[in-house]
Amino acid sequence: MLLRIENLEVKYGNVQVLHKLNLNVAQGEIVTILGANGAGKSTTLMSVSGLVKPSGGGIYLEDKALHKLEAHDIVKLGLAQVPEGRRVFGTLSVQENLHLGAFTATDQARIRKNMEWVYEMFPILHQRRGQLAGTLSGGEQQMLAIGRGLMANPKILLLDEPSLGLAPILVKSIFATIREINKSGVTIVLVEQNARLALKLADRGYVLELGKIVLEDTAKALLVNPEVQNAYLGGA
Ligand code: ATP
């Protein structure tokens, strides 16, 4: 397994929000985490990327104990997170935002190559490379947020709600690009409100309820699971 989360426990103050959570991601997979608002999906991703410190359990990337490391060292090991809400630096250009994503790299040739790769994935970002990120559309900002994550040249990319607030046509295009990114060798962990889309894209999925994994299966099986259909797919 590339990523292993073992008996993860997280508390905010004295409120426990994750309870003995176990989740595995194999090299090359797309794994999705489904769950209602407040189930603990973002907390799970933030624990992996080091932004939230667990109170118990362990998180391992190729047997390196991430829960003992700081967020910037976790990025260096090859794990990047694209946070919810397309946080880009609005007063910097597209190109400058991408450069910031490469903060772990010192090799200029490598940075250039990554940037070419990002522009290939998102041609619109190339067209708008000189534009201030704050003036991009919502969809373009989401692409930039993903592109910035890719600049760290990750083995594994964590995506938190990439479709949030986007028009359906843009959602389709973002999801198609996520598939492309995965095909190029990047393992993906996807948190997504749009459960149907997420399950169509993913290999496997986990269902999180009140901080506990209640179900895990292949994405195909989850799509036809009556409980999942009732709770997350509008009963269809
Ligand atoms: P959503 O789909 O709404 O983003 P989520 O499944 O990602 O939800 P989390 O954001 O992980 O859920 O939140 C899990 C629980 O922890 C919620 O009850 C939330 O209110 C609480 N929580 C999250 N962040 C904090 C914080 N910084 N301090 C206190 N409680 C928090």
From TrEMBL:
<dbReference type="Pfam" id="PF00005">
    <property type="entry name" value="ABC_tran"/>
</dbReference>
<keyword id="KW-0029">Amino-acid transport</keyword>
<dbReference type="InterPro" id="IPR052156">
    <property type="entry name" value="BCAA_Transport_ATP-bd_LivF"/>
</dbReference>
<dbReference type="InterPro" id="IPR003439">
    <property type="entry name" value="ABC_transporter-like_ATP-bd"/>
</dbReference>
<dbReference type="GO" id="GO:0015807">
    <property type="term" value="P:L-amino acid transport"/>
</dbReference>
<dbReference type="GO" id="GO:0005524">
    <property type="term" value="F:ATP binding"/>
</dbReference>
<dbReference type="GO" id="GO:0015658">
    <property type="term" value="F:branched-chain amino acid transmembrane transporter activity"/>
</dbReference>
<comment type="similarity">
    <text>Belongs to the ABC transporter superfamily.</text>
</comment>
<feature type="domain" description="ABC transporter">
    <location>
        <begin position="3"/>
        <end position="235"/>
    </location>
</feature>
<dbReference type="InterPro" id="IPR030660">
    <property type="entry name" value="ABC_branched_ATPase_LivF/BraG"/>
</dbReference>
<keyword id="KW-0067">ATP-binding</keyword>
<dbReference type="GO" id="GO:0016887">
    <property type="term" value="F:ATP hydrolysis activity"/>
</dbReference>
<protein>
    <submittedName>
        <fullName>Amino acid/amide ABC transporter ATP-binding protein 2, HAAT family</fullName>
    </submittedName>
</protein>
<keyword id="KW-0547">Nucleotide-binding</keyword>
<dbReference type="InterPro" id="IPR003593">
    <property type="entry name" value="AAA+_ATPase"/>
</dbReference>
<dbReference type="InterPro" id="IPR027417">
    <property type="entry name" value="P-loop_NTPase"/>
</dbReference>
<keyword id="KW-0813">Transport</keyword>
<dbReference type="InterPro" id="IPR017871">
    <property type="entry name" value="ABC_transporter-like_CS"/>
</dbReference>
